[in-house]
Amino acid sequence: MVPFRKMHGLGNDFVVLDARAAKLPVTPARAAAIADRHFGIGCDQFIIMEKPPAGADVFMRIRNPDGSEAGACGNATRCIASLVAEERGADRVVVRTIAGDLPVERLPGGLWRADMGPARLRWDDVPLARKVDTLHLPLALGPVSDPAACSMGNPHATFFVDDLDAIPVAELGPKLEHDPIFPDRANIGFAQVLSPEHLRLVIWERGAGLTLACGSGACAGIVNAVRRGLTGRRATVTMPGGDLQMEWRQTDGHVLMTGPVATAFTGTLDLEAYGS
């Protein structure tokens, strides 16, 4: 039996396993089975803490509910950082992912601020299937068109809309995620600008579907909004699960994300009960 934690950031929830002391036999199929909300524990992403490489305090491996591997997850980054910080009695830790190092620091009021690194704006960094302007993708479906794209360790496209409530996100999201312009699929954001300091956002996550919050999606949302001249570099991003405080720092292009973390419950699971 393997201990696990169920954690979340604004309702974006994770099953967390600790494989720092010994490697665990977690296959993509097992991760997907555990992530299933009907037959498993259920989560938006399956997280494995691994032995930290040089220069980091922990390595975080991220799997989507379909078993595919993700490069970044902002809400999970804060959750994992909070665990390691509590263990070490530290206020700052570095979480390494396959997309790079993410420094996280403790703030007053139970908040954590993660430096999600620089936004990548080149077409081949997203990546896109062909060379196009990432500020205006030639992509449209139903009532949405003209998204902006960037990479925050994984591919994102943001559609700006006048009325978010009028957009059939669950219908459009899976089609746009798999559009041929995204060779690795993409996270699809639908954003409504409420003011220059406030963005409302819903995300269809690649491999996960609709989630209550998406940290890297909020990063992409603020970056693309600033690039379009719609918001300032600091703004609140409101998602169904709550608010994140975002900043796209001008000095180095890094995106800072501030928000809460929570543990819902802990338990143990039998990995062999979830296939091979």
Architecture overview:
The chain has 276 residues and is α+β, with helices and mostly antiparallel strands. The strands form two sheets. The chain has a 17-stranded mixed beta sheet that branches. The protein is globular, with a radius of gyration of 18 Å. The model has no long low-confidence stretch (mean pLDDT 96).
> How do the SSEs run, as a string of H and E?
EEHEEEHEEEEEEEHEEEHEEEE
The shape is: globular
Mean pLDDT: 96
The count of strands amounts to 19
Main sheet, how many strands, which sense, barrel? 17 strands, mixed
Q: What is the CA–CA distance across the termini?
A: 15 Å
Q: Helical region count?
A: 4
List the helices and strands and how they pair.
Blueprint: E1 2-9, E2 12-19, H1 28-35, E3 45-50, E4 58-63, E5 69-70, H2 74-88, E6 92-97, E7 100-107, E8 111-118, E9 140-141, E10 144-145, E11 148-151, E12 155-160, H3 169-177, E13 187-195, E14 198-205, E15 209-210, H4 215-227, E16 234-239, E17 242-248, E18 254-260, E19 262-269
Parallel strand pairs: 2-3, 4-6, 12-13, 14-16
Antiparallel strand pairs: 1-2, 1-19, 3-4, 4-5, 6-7, 7-8, 8-18, 9-10, 11-12, 13-14, 14-15, 16-17, 17-18
Which short descriptors sum up this protein?
single chain, 276 residues, alpha+beta, 17-stranded mixed sheet, two-stranded antiparallel ribbon, 4 helices, 19 strands, 41% strand, globular
Summarize the structure.
16% of the residues lie in helices and 41% in strands. It is α+β, with helices and mostly antiparallel strands.
